[in-house]
């Protein structure tokens, strides 16, 4: 029987390649919010996309439900250092919501019913990288996790995936949102550990 070199732990497991630096995996789904959970009813819910010229497109809940949906399975990463692997959602690709919207914008701001906002480059919402989701794990999205609908941008830290989302506005310039103005990183790439702005 051959001896093992001290400190040898065998081959790195594949799951480790899916967890950004500084993160740990969890089977739970921690609930973290900037304030109390709002009560958003589907009979009054609407979702609005507005371009930089103020032109708007609005969907009711029933109109939104009739749009093409996808069921992405993705890993999600919270700035508080937990990662949850293989989460499954159902929702409308942001590409579908932006289709036909005339815009020269380079940036977007997601808006929530509780007044929360978060910003990102528009390219991070397109190309099959983001959805507005209404289901998690095959069930309607619970209010504490952002139901009835939340933004899902899994390649960025999870504060970018705005809960209780009510719309997206497009802008020519970057407009920092709630946590960004409080010192969180403007972009939020978990693989680069972009948690906070310099000086925070």
TrEMBL record:
Residues 1-28 are annotated as: Disordered. Residues 35-179 form the Oxidoreductase molybdopterin-binding domain. Gene3D superfamilies: Oxidoreductase, molybdopterin-binding domain (3.90.420.10). It comes from the Bacteria. This is Molybdopterin-dependent oxidoreductase. It comes from Glycomyces albidus. The lineage of its organism: Bacteria, Bacillati, Actinomycetota, Actinomycetes, Glycomycetales.
């Amino acid at each position: 029987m051959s001896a093992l070199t001290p400190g040898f732990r065998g081959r790195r497991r594949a799951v480790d390649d899916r967890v950004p630096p500084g993160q740990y995996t969890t089977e739970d789904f921690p609930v973290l919010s900037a304030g109390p959970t709002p009560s958003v009813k589907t009979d009054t819910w609407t979702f609005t996309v507005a371009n930089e010229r103020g032109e708007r497109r609005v969907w009711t809940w029933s109109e939104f439900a009739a749009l093409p949906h996808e069921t992405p399975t993705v890993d999600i990463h919270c700035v508080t250092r937990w990662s949850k692997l293989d989460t499954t959602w159902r929702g409308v690709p942001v590409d579908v919501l932006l289709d036909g919207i005339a815009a020269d914008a380079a940036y977007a701001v997601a808006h929530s019913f509780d007044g929360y906002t978060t910003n990102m480059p528009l390219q991070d919402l397109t190309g099959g990288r983001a959805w507005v989701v209404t289901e998690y794990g095959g069930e309607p999205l619970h209010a504490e996790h952002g139901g009835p609908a939340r933004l899902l941008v899994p390649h960025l830290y999870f504060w970018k995936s705005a809960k209780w989302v009510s719309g997206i506005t497009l802008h020519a310039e970057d407009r920092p949102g709630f946590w960004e103005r409080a010192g969180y990183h403007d972009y939020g790439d978990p693989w680069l550990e972009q948690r906070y702005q310099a000086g925070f």
